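Dear colleague,

Thank you for sharing your sequence with our group. We've completed the structure prediction you requested, and as agreed, I am returning the results in plain text so they can be pasted directly into your records. Please verify that the sequence below matches your submission; if there's any discrepancy, let me know and we will rerun it promptly.
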Amino acid sequence: MADDDDEIARARGMVRGSPYLNTEQAAAYLGVSAWRMKAMRKAGTGPRYRFHSRYIRYLIDDLVLWSRSTSQAAMAPDRKRADGEQANA
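Please find the predicted structure tokens below.
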């Protein structure tokens, strides 16, 4: 519940009265650069976006969904070695 409250507070700080963010605002919301957002958009690996006229807009809910979809659980050091990664000796 606390995470949801943080996301709502951050969204309110980003935009006033609209659930849509431009590229720079969306990048700040996710903690990446605007350049990174554009590169992910071009590669098709970033969050969903929409065209409003000729302007690209990101729905805050889509940013949250994309962020959650990219989360990974931390792996134990023994598991990493078992998957073929060499331990530093």
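Summary note from our side: The CA atoms of residues 48 and 62 lie 6 Å apart.

Kind regards,
the structure core
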